[in-house]
Write a structure and sequence with these properties.
253 residues; five-stranded mixed β-sheet; 10 helices; ProC C-terminal domain-like fold; Rossmann fold; 47% helix; elongated
């Protein structure tokens, strides 16, 4: 995800200077400086924005190394699941302006969506900076209640995996119905991708789009009786989202 944001920033020329802390000898885009550890960053560095794009399990070790930038002039943007504003206050100090955000992997093609929440120290200009930084790879929404980021993580953060699983399951069902595997997968991928784009562009809501495909007594109705029946897709997804939401809350502990 950090790489996707970096690519978006470079494409939109959002920053004149970018420094990346990455222990592995990873190739960087032109003009991006790589440092193996935080201690190697220049002593006079005064960044406008520090992005935390690491696994949440590593943040307790990583974040304190950046406390020297927590003067109020530098905004901190975290895309780590589950790590709260309170967590950053403990590791960076109460004066640090922090924005938590949950993007998703379609950011890699500029079609992501991120939901963000800011603490009280974030200025209007810093909020705008964080929004521009996230908007480089997709849409941005804001919430005032940080607790909403747990279900956001469950729905849109983890959501691409559910869609990819749907593609897998559609293809497998097609094979079970007699289709060649390659054709079944091609149909599943194109159907999900095309339906998603139709939903994005249409003024009609998802329920109406579903009804538009469903003829009384037809094949779609026969399938929807299974998917919308007792124990069908809706209750299954409610349980899945609830489980992911709870896991997001656990990551804060």
């Amino acid at each position: 995800m950090g790489g996707a944001l970096l690519a978006g920033w470079k494409k939109r020329r959002l920053a004149q200077s970018i420094a990346v802390v990455e222990p592995a000898p990873t190739p960087m885009p032109s003009g991006v400086r790589r440092y193996a550890r935080p201690a190697a960053l220049p002593k006079n560095l005064a960044p406008r924005l520090v992005l935390f794009a690491v696994k949440p399990q590593a943040l307790a070790e990583v974040a304190p190394a950046y406390r020297r930038f927590a003067t109020g002039d530098t905004a901190f943007l975290s895309i780590a699941a589950g790590k709260t504003l309170g967590f950053f206050a403990r590791h960076l100090g109460d004066a640090a302006p922090v924005v938590r955000a949950m993007p998703n992997t379609p950011a890699a093609i500029g079609r992501g969506i991120a939901v963000a929440c800011a603490n009280a120290k974030v200025s209007r200009a810093q909020r705008a900076l964080c929004e521009r930084s996230l908007r480089a790879v997709g849409e941005v929404a804001w919430v005032g209640d940080e607790r909403l980021l747990d279900p956001v993580t469950a729905l849109s953060g983890s959501g691409p995996a559910y869609v990819f699983l749907l593609i897998e399951c559609l293809a497998e069902a097609g094979v079970a119905a007699g289709l060649p595997a390659a054709l079944a997968m091609r149909l599943a991928r194109a159907t999900v991708a095309g339906s998603g784009e139709l939903a994005r562009q249409s003024a009609e809501d998802a329920a109406q789009l579903r009804r538009n495909v469903t003829s009384p007594g037809g094949t779609t109705e026969a399938a929807l009786k299974i998917l919308m029946g007792e124990g069908g897709l809706a209750p299954l997804l409610r349980r899945a989202i609830a489980a992911a939401t709870e896991r997001s809350r656990q990551l804060a502990d």
